[in-house]
Design brief:
alpha+beta; Rieske Iron-sulfur Protein; 2 domains; 23% strand
Length: 188
């Protein structure tokens, strides 16, 4: 009787090994198909979080500054924000350098804000509440320091875009930019 028990179907050690390996294979195959299926289902969601093509196109912009004469300013749009580009006069440059020694709310030297002294590039959004300061056009009020003035709350910026008076806590920010040549600036 003991011989029959050991030879009965399902009790043979060789059969258990085959059944175990089949179960392992089915478990691995099912898990793999489930993981691949989940990845394929989740991929559109993950892909939808990438920036759109039109947003990527705005990541940088090239500006031709060849027609901007000394003393003039232009405004371009970068990432939906106005960027002020000013071709500064020798007087504006010397005033900005002299103001390096003034009591500044957000201390920053003029030479740290420009790559070439005659060209000032900065985001034209007031750091107080996001208004757009005046000072780009010839007839605009330029504030007490000859730069830019935000009439909404009275912030005054100097010829280097540094906050000098009013509630704004920081200077007008300088975006990442580079000169591609003497007449082209790439912002972003």
């Amino acid at each position: 009787m003991t011989d029959m028990a050991t030879t009965a179907p399902g009790n043979d050690p060789g059969e258990q090994g085959e059944g175990q390996s089949r179960r392992d294979f089915l478990l691995i195959a099912t898990s793999t198909v489930g993981a691949v299926g989940t990845a394929l289902a989740v991929w559109p969601l993950i892909h939808s979080m990438n920036p759109a093509a039109d947003t990527l196109a705005l990541a940088s912009t090239e500006v031709d500054i060849s027609s901007v004469e000394e003393g003039q300013s232009i405004t371009v749009v970068w990432r939906g924000k106005p960027v002020f580009i000013r071709h500064r006069t020798a007087e504006e440059i010397s005033q900005a350098e002299a103001d390096d020694k003034a009591a500044l709310v957000d201390p920053q030297r003029d030479e740290d804000r420009v790559q070439k002294p005659e060209w000032l590039v900065m985001v034209g959004v007031c750091t107080h509440l996001g208004c757009i300061p005046k000072g780009q056009k010839l007839g605009d009020e330029k504030g007490d320091f000859g730069g830019w003035f935000c009439p909404c709350h009275g912030s005054h910026y100097d010829t280097s875009g540094r906050i000098r008076k009013g509630p704004a806590p920081l200077n007008l920010p300088v975006p990442p930019y580079e000169f591609l040549d003497d007449t082209t600036i790439k912002i972003g």
